[in-house]
Design a protein that fits this description.
The protein is an alpha/beta fold and 290 residues long. It has helices spanning 13-23, 48-58, 72-77, 79-100, 129-141, 165-174, 192-204, 222-232, 263-269, 276-286; strands at 4-8, 27-32, 41-42, 62-65, 103-109, 147-152, 154-155, 179-182, 186-187, 190-191, 210-214, 220-221, 240-243. The strands form 4 sheets. A 7-stranded parallel sheet has the order 3-2-1-4-5-6-11, with helices on both faces. Strands 7-10 form a two-stranded parallel sheet. α8 (222-232) packs across α10. The longest helix is centred in the N-terminal third of the chain and has 22 residues, at 79-100. Bound molecules: NADP nicotinamide-adenine-dinucleotide phosphate. The site of NADP nicotinamide-adenine-dinucleotide phosphate has 28 residues, from α1, α4 and β5.
């Protein structure tokens, strides 16, 4: 019999990309909040009684918890909302898993880091309300011993979603805007389909537990990533300048170095993580830029 997976945040950027990967091999219960995922449900995960009723009916073997307030500036302006969506939802789900022998896979963020070099799993350093609430949620997740916390970042194209780095970049090029490419924030994201592939590997490999960094082998600045993507896609001309992050005048402080050390996951899966160049190549194979 197929294992049952309960996927939260299924109407979001990562969730909607992950659904087709999961549907092939699992019986999937996918939930969004305001938007209903295809073949899925609406559920407010901050309401514990509703969560319990849903889970008692579905009885999943695995919960993959992606739902979150991901708008970093909104988290800074409204800490209570960030706490409710990032922490209370997690608590409600974890309470159910502890009593029901259910594996828990939690999507966390590289924003938890800000040390020099390659950040290891044991060296968190939250800088803003978003990363702090995600970090508190991680602590809640660890109450279930059968849980995996995936610290990651990703890029891709997400039709019908606002707020992704690449969508903003392409739209700015089309509108012939002058683009500020950020040169002082470094990270090691995966292309979103690669991230989905690794999430599947982690689901299959029950030995994987605890906190895992999941990113590319090497790091790059946010600006250089966009520039390299534009070259790979053959975008000939656009107007840009390289700038420091403080030129953007955003509300929340951002960590400057989120590059993660990925040796733990490489050892667990017994294979090297792809390089940023490979991630850009994968993106270029999958999208049609016009
Ligand atoms: N985006 C990134 O670059 C990035 C980087 C690192 C880590 N992550 C982590 O990866 C995960 C997925 O990110 P994403 O970018 O795909 O998120 P997203 O596009 O912002 O989607 C957020 C999801 O959370 C749901 N949600 C919000 N409030 C809810 C509530 N009260 N009850 C139930 N669901 C609720 C939303 O539902 P509706 O839209 O239907 O209201 C949506 O499905 C998050 O945990 C995030 O922290 C993201």
């Amino acid at each position: 019999m197929k294992k049952k997976i309960f996927l939260t945040g299924a109407s979001g950027k990562l969730g909607s990309t992950l659904i087709p990967y999961l549907e092939k091999n699992y019986k999937l219960f996918s939930v969004g909040f305001k938007k209903k995922p295809v073949n899925g449900f609406n559920l407010d995960l901050t309401k514990e009684s509703k969560v319990k009723i849903f889970l008692n009916k579905a009885r999943p073997d695995i919960i993959i918890h992606l739902a979150a307030l991901t708008n970093v500036d909104l988290c800074e302006k409204n800490y209570q909302k960030a706490y409710d969506i990032n922490c209370i939802t997690t608590k409600n789900l974890i309470n159910w898993t502890k009593k029901n022998n259910c594996r828990f896979i939690y999507l966390s963020t590289d924003q938890i880091y800000n040390n020099s070099g390659f950040n290891k799993e044991n060296n968190p350093c939250p800088q803003n309300s978003y990363s702090l609430t995600k970090y508190i949620a991680e602590k809640i997740v660890l109450f279930n011993k059968d849980s995996v916390i995936i610290r990651t970042n990703f890029f891709g194209i997400f039709p019908n979603h606002n707020g992704s780095l690449l969508d903003w970049f392409f739209q700015s090029i089309k509108k012939k805007k002058r683009i500020k490419l950020i040169k002082d924030i470094h990270f090691n994201p995966l292309y979103v389909d690669q991230l989905c592939f690794y999430i599947l590997e982690i689901i299959k490999n029950k030995r994987i537990k605890g906190i895992i960094n999941l990113g590319a082998k090497n790091g790059i600045s946010k600006g250089k990533l966009l520039f390299n993507i534009s070259k790979k896609l053959g975008i000939k001309k656009f107007s840009f300048s390289y700038e420091n992050f403080n030129k953007l005048n955003l509300t929340a402080n951002r960590p400057k170095n989120m590059i993660m050390n990925v040796t733990k996951i490489e050892k667990l899966l017994n294979k090297p993580m792809p390089k940023i160049k490979d991630c850009i190549n994968k993106l270029a194979m999958n999208i049609n830029y016009e």
